Amino acid sequence: MKCYICAQMGKSTDAVAICIICGMGTCMEHTIRREVDVWEGGYPFPAKKLPKKIPRMLCPDCNASYKEG
Ligand SMILES: [Zn+2]
Ligand SMILES: [Zn+2]
User: Fold this and answer.
1) Residues with CB under 5 A from ligand 2 (ion)
2) How far is the CA of 43 from the centre of ligand 2 (A)?
3) How far apart are the C-alpha atoms of 26 and 28, rounded to whole Å?
4) Residue 59 — pLDDT band, cuts 50, 70, 90?
5) How far is the CA of 29 from the centre of ligand 2 (A)?
6) High-pLDDT (> 90) share of the chain, %
7) CA of 26 to the centre of ligand 2 (A)
8) What are the domain boundaries of the chain?
9) Alpha carbon distance 69, 57 (integer Å)
């Protein structure tokens, strides 16, 4: 798979990760690794926050949306 963003710019770079939201392949330069809080929800208890953060791979577009949301 090639990096989608590089491909848009006419470059051909191998993708090293896949965005967990949109599934776009991204190269090292275009991959954003975010530490996301993990919430465990379970009826009838309110969601509780797990002590760990899980790193997730996002493309720049989804990272931007994620910040806004
Ligand atoms: Zn790229
Ligand atoms: Zn994405």
Assistant:
1) 19, 21-22, 24, 59, 62
2) 31
3) 7
4) very high
5) 14
6) 52
7) 9
8) 4-68
9) 17
Residue reference for tokens 């993708």 = 15
27 residue type, one letter? C
Which listed ligand is nearest to 10 at the C-alpha? 1
Ligand nearest the Cα atom of residue 12: 1
In the block, tokens 């791979």 appear at: 57
Cα–chain-centroid distance for residue 11?
Answer: 22
14, 6 Cβ separation under 8 angstroms: no
* Alpha carbon distance 48, 41 (integer Å): 6
Q: Write the single-letter amino acid at 47.
A: A
**Nearest of 9, 3, 5, 7 to residue 27 by alpha carbon:** 3
Query: Which ligand is closest to the CA of 4, given by its number?
Result: 1
